[in-house]
# Entry
Amino acid sequence: MIKKGSKLYSISYNKCPKCHCGSFWHKNNPYLNILKNNKLTNSHCANCMFKYEIEPGFWFGAMYVSYAIAVAFVLIFGALLYVFFENMDIITIVSILSVFVIIFSPINHFFSRLIWINIFIDYTNSIKQ
# Structure
């Protein structure tokens, strides 16, 4: 079990990086947040009132995290496809990986923003909960 106060808790449970009580995204489902509602993160935490957009352009850094997640996904699953399906053509492998990267892009976006803000913001236990 991931304990409250760790950065993994905030990332795993979609919680405010400052107090670990309020939700970072509107809903825990990335597909409902991005595809259905077309909403990004909450503007601030409902519990501690921490403003999530620290400065203008803050979320541009999350693109680098998103890129790293996508590259790791492609390398790991590309290698697995290549090992387990040796007769499969490389074009087929690239096509399969491309489809999966597109399908999982809302999840990638969801976690890349949570990871990015947790790099800079530390948990503060002194906030009333």
Summary: The chain has five helices and no strands.
